[in-house]
Write a structure and sequence with these properties.
- The protein is an alpha/beta fold.
- The protein has a single domain, classed as Inosine-uridine Nucleoside N-ribohydrolase, Chain A (Alpha-Beta Complex).
- It is 36% helix and 17% strand.
- The strands form three sheets. The protein has an eight-stranded mixed sheet, sandwiched between helices. Strands 7-8 form a two-stranded antiparallel sheet. The protein has a two-stranded antiparallel sheet with strand order 10-11.
- Helix 2 links the parallel strand 2 and strand 3.
- Helix 8 packs antiparallel against helix 9.
- Bound molecules: alpha-D-ribofuranose and calcium ion.
- Alpha-D-ribofuranose binds next to helix 1, helix 5 and helix 10.
């Protein structure tokens, strides 16, 4: 059976970086492109970071292109307090060996959809996908599977009501969730079940490889942020859950839902209302409910250990 073709739409982002490395190390899938979007940090930085991570993985065969620099509505993009000023924990990097593909990121997504069955892993704001649908009406029906890290059933992170990827561009999220894609949504109440601890950071460093050293180094400031924000250094692997779903669709338990996005609320802008009522059991939109963290950590360790210098 052919390996699923996968495009990653991303705003690296430390947890994006781990997700991209997991994808590039996994033989079950064929990563055909990476497209950057403004989010954790401005587009110029997310595009550079995507190139850095693809180069770190030694995958110059994977095109990296830049998508949208601003959300559909008012600009909210500013430097991240979560991921460092450069978006990857403020390490020192050489100029990446992977050049920026000159194609418009949104058009590269359309091109990859036209080339055959495609799974899109969306781990940043949904601006690129909303513009894709606006420019190419009906293209959502040509996508095999859209896996989104975003939203929250009960409690946000960037506000009490909203999760960052949705909050950063709620209008885009509404356009996407009003589409006809087959969607798997991995919200905060799922992703908070998946985290790494200091033993994992020590393990990555002990690998003695460039990937191991850099993953451990970029996770350290991320762990310090978690300690300040949540009172524990456990680092939540939000975006890696979207890749993990594609690697093994039995790993995350799911159920059918309908999703509505709030765009107007004074306190609730960017909130996702995830309707789990039984009438939605057969919906083409599913939400992740539970995941076994020990199994996930073991898989991540095994895959990142596969990179050799
Ligand atoms: O809320 C978590 C999401 O926001 C993740 O995608 C993380 O990278 C940040 O962008
Ligand atoms: Ca992200």
């Amino acid at each position: 059976m052919a390996r699923p073709r996968v495009l990653i739409d991303t705003d690296p982002g430390v947890d994006d970086a781990v997700a991209i490395l997991l994808a590039l190390a996994s033989p079950e899938i064929d990563v055909v492109a990476v497209t950057a979007v403004a989010g954790n940090v401005p587009l110029a930085k997310t595009a550079l970071n995507a190139r850095r991570i693809v180069a770190l993985a030694g995958r110059g065969d994977v095109p990296v292109a830049a998508g949208r620099a601003q959300p559909l509505s008012e600009p909210v993009v500013e430097d991240s307090v979560v991921h460092g000023r450069d978006g990857l924990g403020d390490l020192d990097w050489d100029e990446p060996a992977v050049a920026l593909d000159p194609r418009d990121g949104v058009e590269l997504i359309a091109e990859m959809i036209g080339a055959g069955p495609l799974t899109i892993v969306a781990i940043g704001p949904l601006t690129n996908l909303a513009v894709l649908l606006q420019r190419h009406p009906g293209i959502d029906r040509d996508v095999e599977h859209l896996v989104i890290m975003g939203g929250a059933s009960f409690q946000g992170n960037v506000t009490p009501a909203a999760e960052f990827n949705i909050w950063a561009d709620p209008e885009a999220a509404r356009v996407v969730f009003d589409g006809a894609w087959r969607i798997t949504l991995l919200p905060l109440d799922l992703t908070h079940q998946a985290y790494l601890d200091d033993q994992d950071l020590d393990y990555f460093h002990s690998l003695g490889t460039e990937v191991g050293r850099r993953v451990a180094a970029m996770l350290e400031p991320y762990a310090q942020f978690h300690d300040r924000w949540y009172g524990t250094r456990d680092v939540i692997m939000h975006d890696a859950m979207a890749v993990y779903e594609v690697l093994d669709d039995a790993a995350i338990q799911k159920r059918g839902v309908r999703v509505a996005v709030e765009t107007d609320g004074v306190h609730s802008r960017g909130a996702t209302f995830i309707d789990r009522r039984r009438e939605n059991a057969d919906s083409p939109v599913r939400v992740g409910v539970t995941v076994d963290n020990d199994r996930f950590r073991a898989r991540l360790r095994e895959r990142l250990a596969s990179f050799v210098d």
